[in-house]
Amino acid sequence: MEKHPFGQNRDFLKDSIRKGLDFSHTDQNLGAPIPPIEKPYAADALRIDLARPDGLKGKHAVDLASAIANRRSRRSYRREPLSLDELSFLLWATQGVRGKVTEGHAYRTVPSAGCRHALETYLAVVKVDGLDEGVYRYLPLSHQLLLEFAEEDLGAKLVAATLGQAFVARAAITFIWTAIPYRMEWRYGLAAHKVIAIDAGHVCQNLYLACEAIGAGTCAIAAYDQEAVDRLLRLDGDDEFVIYLAPVGKVTLI
Asked: 162, 180, 174: which is closest to 120 by C-alpha?
């Protein structure tokens, strides 16, 4: 029987899972140091405090069944900005720390294989009250924003990097998730690459539902120029690279 043209890629995925199930030679079992759960930053970097998670409870209440039923990809956004409190809520809902923090582990609002959380959250901020246009990174351990760098014409640059998807330029912010694969490889070896992608799905689904609670919308994007978007975030593209994007803006919910 002739093999399906995509069979080679399918075999690679299945083989990586099968071979990855042998964890005896992973760095964890070989005694390598556990990777940090948050990308380091300079001590003098500009950081912005966000509304504490305890103060967010009930503030953006929405019936869960309604949020699930109304969830859809939304590409049309109003011109108004998001507030810093609304952004804080979205960040907490997608990567916030909700429990015990130990070396290399932090219990968050989304699941992750082995509690490894290999993702970092960057924000291309265009219209958020109190924030200048630029690229920021979320610091989940302290629930703060870190200014990575100022950048003009972010919307247009993101459209170019996402292969001409014009609606990106109309968003107030764009969530950009990167993977630091070694956080997961340290424990799972080859099997890490499957669960990193699964983790990204968990995070983005929480963003969809949280957007429904604040009258906002999002549309997940997996079609982009890898080198262009990594370059825009000033990443090396190897030890850290973009894996998923999601523009967010206020919408008229029906």
From this structure: 180
76-111, pLDDT tens digit by residue? Answer: 999 999 999 999 999 999 999 988 788 778 899 999
Q: How many domains does the chain have?
A: 1
What is the structure's pLDDT at 66?
81
- What amino acid is encoded at 226 in this protein? Q
- Does residue 119 contact residue 199 with C-beta atoms inside 8 Å? yes
We report the CATH number of the domain holding residue 174 as 3.40.109.10
Range of the domain at 103: 7-250
In a domain, 1, yes or no: no
Q: What are the tokens at 172?
A: 């107030």
Instruction: Pull the structure tokens for residue 126.
Output: 């265009």
Contacts of 181 (CB under 8 A, 6+ apart): 118, 192, 193, 196, 239
The pLDDT, as a whole number, for residue 55 is 66
Let me know if residue 231 belongs to a domain.
yes
Q: Does pLDDT of 171 surpass 80?
A: yes
d(C-alpha 12, C-alpha 19), whole Å: 10
CB 161 within 8 A of CB 151: no
Flag whether 2 is in a domain: no
Amino acid, single-letter form, for residue 104: G
Nearest alpha-carbon partner for 217 in 59, 82, 63 = 82
3-state secondary structure at position 177: strand
| Per-residue model confidence (pLDDT) at position 254 | 57
196: nearest Cα among 183, 215, 205: 183
